[in-house]
Design goal:
Blueprint lengths: L1 H34 L2 H10 L6 H12 L3 H8 L10 H13 L3 H13 L4 H14 L3 H13 L4 H14 L3 H14 L4 H13 L3 H8 L5 H23 L10 H4 L25 E2 L5 E2 L12 E8 L5 H11 L2 E6 L2 E9 L2 H9 L7 E4 L6 E2 L1
Antiparallel strand pairs: 1-2, 3-5, 3-6, 4-5, 4-7
Helix pairs in contact: 1-2, 2-3, 3-4, 3-5, 4-5, 5-6, 6-7, 7-8, 7-9, 8-9, 9-10, 9-11, 10-11, 11-12, 12-13, 13-16
Length: 374
């Protein structure tokens, strides 16, 4: 009898200890999520994988949110057979397939996620994103609307619907949707960034200025708006002067609009063959305008938004193209660096940078760099 009582006491102490550990981990996790420090949150998940197996899925999901497919795959490969029976793990598989452009497999994993008891709201949100990448825009919007009915965030669904409208060049429609979201919560950086883009392209600089003033002085906001408006006007002029590629000018060197997810006559643009002299091409198909090598030539400044030794995630590339025009890539060692914009004045480039909501972006001098148009 004494042994039974002792065993019961030990079991009670053990369970209480586990509860205390779990509560402590949950508290730390909430604090780190609230701080917005993704790197510390990553290290937290790594350090506690053995204590909380679900952290593997959360770690993969966090890497995917940072567009770090390689790291996401590394921890995805640690999943056990038991893990793959859980909906949270299956959902990360679907998200990974989505970012790798394996859309058919992503949809199959989404169906499995639902079969294993996954949340309907999350199912419809991701399915909508996949359909948008497949240019099935009306069906994508239907999925986002359905996600709201199934408990997904109205804000997330609304922002996604606005992005689809922007992909269709319906900037006024996107602005209407985003402005309502902005009024409800002006602190949402993602909504603010998308609203600035849509309102500038919709020829509503008054709205863009209002949003820019939320985090800047009036003078800074006006400078940023001016830079954005000039960039959009320049892209529009370039798009109106597009010419068909000749036998001497390859489609690859011009950056064919056919590869865009959402080509528009306001944002996405091609460079006509007449704008540059015939470029000297390297073996990798990159370009370098020989005029740029002459002494005294005006500099070219762009904003670098990503550096990676793997391919740029398709959704991020499409987002950049749709909203900022041509994306320029150049290789430095093993790294591929991706930039947007084109300025001959450093201050204008810095002003444009300040208007972006892209973590880690910075201005680079592109004058003599060999590049590829994407």
């Amino acid at each position: 009898m004494k042994k039974i009582i002792l065993s019961s006491l030990l079991l009670t102490v053990f369970l209480a200890g586990c509860t205390a550990v779990n509560t402590e981990l949950q508290t730390k996790e909430k604090l780190l999520i609230g701080s917005g420090n993704d790197q510390q949150l990553i290290e937290f998940y790594k350090a506690n994988l053995k204590l909380e197996p679900i952290y593997k899925a959360k770690l993969v999901d966090l890497y995917l949110s940072q567009k770090d497919i390689k790291s996401a795959e590394l921890y995805r490969n640690t999943y056990t057979e038991d893990d793959l029976q859980e909906p949270e793990f299956i959902l990360t598989n679907a998200r990974l397939d989505y970012q790798k452009k394996n859309y058919s497999q992503a949809l199959a994993n989404l169906d499995l996620y639902l079969d294993e008891g996954g949340e309907m709201g999350q199912f419809h949100l991701l399915k909508g994103k996949i359909l948008a990448q497949q240019k099935r825009f009306s069906q994508a919007i239907e999925q986002f609307e359905e996600s709201r009915k199934q408990g997904a965030s109205d804000r997330e669904a609304g922002n996604n619907i606005a992005v689809v409208k922007m992909m269709q060049a319906d900037y006024l429609g996107a602005t209407d949707t985003l402005y309502d979201l902005y009024i409800a919560s002006p602190s949402d950086k993602k909504v603010r960034s998308n609203l600035i883009i849509s309102s500038v392209n919709a020829q509503r600089p008054d709205i863009a200025l209002e949003v820019l003033r939320h985090t800047n002085s009036d003078e800074q906001a006006r400078k940023q708006l001016a830079a954005l408006m000039r960039s959009v006007k320049k892209n529009k002029r370039s798009s109106s002067s597009v010419s068909q590629p000749t036998a001497k000018t390859s489609v690859k060197s011009l950056g064919s609009g056919a590869s865009f997810v959402a080509p528009t006559n306001k944002v996405s643009h091609l460079v006509s063959a007449g704008e540059f002299q015939q470029a000297k091409s390297s073996t990798d198909g990159s370009e370098l305008d020989p005029n740029k090598l002459k002494p005294g030539v005006s500099p070219i400044y762009r904003v670098q938004v990503l550096a990676t030794y793997t391919a740029i995630p398709s959704d991020f590339l499409n987002y950049l193209k749709t909203n900022y025009g041509t994306v320029y890539s150049y290789t430095h060692g093993l790294w591929k660096r991706y930039c947007i914009g084109e300025f001959d004045d450093l201050n204008e480039a810095k002003t444009f940078l300040a208007s972006l909501d892209i973590k880690g972006a910075f201005v680079v001098d592109y004058t003599k760099k060999r590049y590829v148009r994407l």
